[in-house]
Design brief:
Elements lengths: L1 H10 L4 H15 L5 H12 L5 H44 L6 H26 L3 H15 L4 H24 L4 H15 L21 H14 L4 H15 L5 H13 L7 H42 L1 H29 L3 H17 L3 H18 L2
Length: 387
């Protein structure tokens, strides 16, 4: 398990959708550690809690495979490579005042990522979309997400509609209200979707970026982010801008954008941006406390959701709620794939890389890690050749 998640953490480029696709290939298709329905349930669960979804999925897989030690090992090994790479980039940034250029590598990786996510969508679709209603829900979630509808509204709205539908069907069949089934839905909603209270706010008397930032306030700022933040790295950008740039004046706008860029171009979770910011503000100790602060809530939330999932499936109404969430999650993943494709497949050479990677995946079942590395090499060669 440690070897697998260290490798995934070192090669999982492309954001949460790509990470999830690579995990499915490894733990469902190649190793059989979890079944497809179990994987889909876990994906639905992590979409309902704050924090980095792909990291939380790794933690949940570890817990399912090897209990509490597996929870810690899988999560830590998935996070570690990213944080080390980001820390190295932060050291270079502080020493030289600029980031290394990696445009060619990214140009080749992005088409490979689109192919990987598309292949995972096809496989997940066969497992998730068990009824016409679920297919319609997934398609609607895709369209509404592309139109800008809030992610949580789609997840909870779809889950609530499926639960209500199931409850009404049971009521008509038995002539009762199925209070027990509805009661089981309450922890499903409250346990997964209500945002927990924000962590204590950092004190106002902290030194600004001109001096050394105290470690405890730095830890609390990132603990709060990890505890209440839903969404992508772009949501993280807005959240950190409000605290670090506008409220405490620890960073400039340019420094924050550089930090987000490093999180995007390195493998693993985008939340490793915290490592970069912590290093810039307070050196290696700052990188450590910021990293622990932003990822700690994920371990806590996953521990509770892992205990809750088996109980959800024991209730027919709560199980229907989870089916709705799973359909919406697949729709959201499809919307992300569309957005990735728009930016990654512009031009004949990126399109060619994407088609070759898709053929390797669908026809030869080539490991996604090799596709990422091959795409990076092709992109770098194309940039050097001026294509």
């Amino acid at each position: 398990m440690a070897r697998l998640f260290l490798r995934l953490g070192s090669t999982a480029f492309g954001g949460p959708a790509a990470h999830i696709a690579m995990m499915r290939g490894e733990v469902v298709l190649r190793r059989g550690w979890v079944t497809e329905p179990e994987f889909v349930d876990m994906l639905g669960a992590v979409n309902l809690i704050p924090g980095p979804n792909s990291t939380e999925l790794a933690i949940l897989i570890g817990h399912r495979r090897a209990g509490w030690p597996g929870l810690l090992v899988a999560g830590a090994c998935f996070i570690l490579p990213s944080t080390l790479l980001v820390a190295a980039a932060a050291w270079a940034y502080v020493r030289y005042g600029a980031l290394p250029q990696a445009a060619g590598l990214l140009d080749g990786m992005k088409p490979a990522v689109v192919a990987i996510v598309a292949q995972a969508l096809c496989g997940l679709g066969r497992s998730v979309l068990k009824t016409p209603a679920m297919a319609v829900a997934a398609a609607a979630a895709t369209a509404l997400s592309l139109l800008g509808v809030d992610v949580l509204a789609l997840l909870f709205g779809c889950g609530a509609l499926f639960a209500l539908w199931r409850a009404c069907a049971l009521h008509r069949a038995d002539g009762t209200s199925r209070v027990r089934g509805l009661a089981a839905l309450v922890p499903a909603v409250l346990g997964g979707g209500v945002k927990p209270g924000a962590a204590a706010r950092a004190s106002a008397g902290v030194a600004t970026a001109a001096g050394a930032v105290a470690l405890l306030p730095l830890f609390l700022v990132f603990l709060k982010a990890g505890a209440v933040l839903f969404g992508s790295g772009y949501v993280l950008l807005a959240f950190l801008r409000a605290d670090l740039v506008q409220r405490f004046h620890w960073l400039t706008e340019a420094q924050l954008l550089d930090a987000i860029a490093v999180g995007q171009v390195t493998p693993g979770p985008v939340f490793s941006t915290a490592t970069f910011i912590g290093y810039v503000l307070a050196g290696a100790p700052g990188a450590a406390v910021a990293t622990v602060g932003i990822f700690l809530p994920a371990f806590v939330f996953v521990a509770f959701s892992g205990l809750l999932l088996p109980r959800l499936r024991c209730s027919r109404v709560a199980g229907a709620f989870l089916d709705g969430v799973n359909a919406a999650s697949l729709g959201l993943m499809a919307a992300v794939t569309v957005e990735l494709g728009r930016s990654a497949l512009s031009g004949w050479f990126p399109l060619l890389i994407g088609l070759v990677c898709a053929a390797c995946l669908f026809r030869f079942r080539l490991n996604a890690t090799w596709l990422i590395l091959g795409g990076a090499a092709a992109g770098l060669l194309a940039r050097l050749a001026g294509l």
